[in-house]
Specification:
By secondary structure, the chain is of the alpha/beta class. Helices cover about 40% and strands about 15% of the residues. It is built from seven helices and nine strands. The termini are far apart.
């Protein structure tokens, strides 16, 4: 074996060792199909390319009263990606989800009212103080993507992290308890200018309690909430299955 071949063999072994060590720390595989060494397979990434549709009809706290758009139902491949990102430590999927929200923002803006002249506030759903102490909440990155897409469509926009939540999370609570806790624990960090047009952003729509409380707080502060955009909607929030239209802003 020549010196050059030996060097290449050493480098290849070192690369393989480094990849194996990285997988021990943070396993890198497609969260949908399990393909190793793939953050998200090109084929599996299609779960993030679904058309933006209203899916708020079955969320008890909203029930079709105002629009929430989602990339798809919270099931199958889309659910696997969101869960891996949200609960399994796969922060590397954040860039994929952000890009999906860029496309969603462009679609939302193209369907929106032509009369919107002032900047639209893109407002992330509120995070607890404990979560904010750990760094910028991941939902704010989704808001960045949505705002970028809205800007690509020629609309003035800005991300404003104005909502705060006191108390614990919503996991494990029933619909009524979620609603009560969300209403009691959601606060405005600053008042928006009167009439400010806002769109809310969250990861998953379940009962709709968090988004409904966020909307109520923003409206009580003088804002005008046009709706919300989320990655996925739980099966109970199945507005699309009841024939609600594709993305449109009324």
């Amino acid at each position: 074996m020549s010196d050059g071949e030996s060097l290449r063999a050493v480098r290849a072994a070192a690369t393989a060792t480094a990849r194996a060590a990285a997988r021990v720390v943070v396993p890198v595989e497609c969260p949908v199909c399990g393909q190793p060494d793939e953050r998200l397979c090109p084929g599996c990434r299609a779960v993030l390319d679904g058309p933006l549709r209203r899916r708020d009809g079955g969320a008890p706290a909203i029930d079709g009263a105002w629009p929430v758009w989602a990339l798809g139902p919270y099931e199958g491949g889309l659910r696997a990606v969101v869960l891996a990102w949200k609960t399994a430590g796969r922060a590397d999927l954040g860039s994929e989800l952000r890009e999906a929200m860029v496309a969603a923002g462009a679609a939302w803006a193209r369907a929106g009212p032509a009369s919107l002249e002032a900047p639209v506030w893109v407002v992330p759903a509120p995070s607890s103080r404990a979560r904010r102490r750990r760094g910028r909440p991941p939902v704010a990155d989704l808001a960045d993507g949505l705002a970028e897409g809205i800007a690509h469509a020629g609309r003035a926009t800005r991300v404003v992290e104005v909502l705060r939540r006191t108390g614990g999370g919503q996991a494990g609570r029933g619909a009524r308890a979620r609603g009560s806790a969300a209403r009691a624990g959601t606060r405005l960090a600053a008042l928006p200018p009167p009439g400010t047009a806002c769109v809310l952003v969250d990861d998953v729509l379940t009962t709709g309690a968090t988004l409904a409380a966020s909307r109520d707080v923003l409206c009580s502060g003088g804002a005008r909430v046009l709706g919300a955009v989320v990655l996925a909607a739980a099966s109970s929030a199945g507005g699309a299955s009841r024939g609600l239209p594709p993305a449109s802003v009324r």
